[in-house]
Automatic annotation (TrEMBL):
Active-site residues, as the UniProt record annotates them: 67, 136, 138, 143
The family this protein is said to belong to: Belongs to the glucosamine/galactosamine-6-phosphate isomerase family. NagB subfamily.
Region forming the signal peptide: none
Protein source organism: Pseudovibrio exalbescens
Name of the coding gene: nagB
Full protein name: Glucosamine-6-phosphate deaminase
Length: 260
């Protein structure tokens, strides 16, 4: 794992966006794995800014999002389809047909999940996968106890995750219980992973991911087995790392400067 610790969340978010843009500049027909959540909002803002400055174009890129809630139509204000459209897709030059999210309204969700996995393969696999992390160490919606060999499938969300995501819904009862998510093995197949975590609330999950045992109890710890995983943190998210001084010695101030 390459662990880059920035002073501020803003610096970590900007670095994440620039790395994504750099990957697309190097390989314009990149297949990108994308993530949602509050952490990603400013990453997408920065990507849109880079696009507006003509420093990156997505016209040849393809995207696959990690997950989508079951039971929310694409047009629902809290669906991940809506999140991605509003945060990124409508602001950039990516063709709509090149953007993919699981179908949360499919009449056969298990089949929709298998079809999604097949579509990723058919596109040649994911070049760069963007990831956030849940307070309980989940990636995508792979909750603790998810098989580290899992593929895209239906998952039941923990109460903890539903409470964390309740802020987007009118009430806890309206917060979906099920989602279709890429599996951990699906994520591990990506040629490169970029995980961004910011804020003190993520510090325990980050420490378990990087320094804990590899365990289904902390799904993100599977990244310890990935050969090209970069973890971008702000100072608060890094605050529980026992070997922080070593990571900062290897990459002072998260410095691993990206040129666009
Ligand atoms: C959701 C998403 C994850 C995301 C996580 C953290 O559950 N499925 O992909 O990483 O929440 O979200 P936030 O960035 O809002 O803390």
């Amino acid at each position: 794992m390459k662990i880059l610790i920035h002073d501020t969340a803003e610096a970590a978010e900007k670095d994440t966006a620039r790395r994504l843009a750099q990957a697309v500049n190097k390989k314009p027909d990149s297949v990108l794995g994308l993530a949602t959540g509050g952490t990603m909002t400013r990453v997408y803002e920065e990507l849109v800014a880079l696009y507006n400055q003509k420093r990156v174009s997505f016209s040849e890129a393809t995207t696959f999002n990690l997950d989508e809630y079951i039971g929310l139509p694409a047009e629902h204000p809290c669906s991940y389809h809506t999140y991605m459209r509003e945060a990124l897709f409508k602001h950039i030059d990516i063709p709509e047909a090149a953007t993919h999210l699981p179908d949360g309204m499919a009449s056969h969700p298990d089949q929709a999940a298998a079809d999604y996995e097949a579509a990723i393969h058919a596109a040649g696999g994911i070049d760069l996968q963007l990831l956030g992390i849940g307070h309980n160490g989940h990636i995508g919606f792979n909750e603790p106890s998810s098989s580290l060999q899992s593929r895209t499938r239906v998952k039941t969300l923990t109460e903890d995750t539903r409470r964390a995501n309740q802020r987007y819904f009118a009430s806890f009862d309206e917060t979906p219980i099920y989602a279709i998510t890429m599996g951990i093995a699906t994520i591990m197949d990506a040629r490169e992973c970029l995980l961004l975590a910011t804020g003190a609330g993520k510090a325990d999950a980050v420490a378990a991911m990087i320094e804990g045992p590899m365990s289904a109890n902390c799904p993100a710890s599977a990244l310890q087995m990935h050969q090209t995983a970069t973890i971008l943190l702000d100072s608060e998210a890094a605050s529980r790392l026992a070997n922080r001084a070593y990571y900062e010695y290897v990459h002072p101030k998260g410095d691993d400067s990206v040129q666009l």
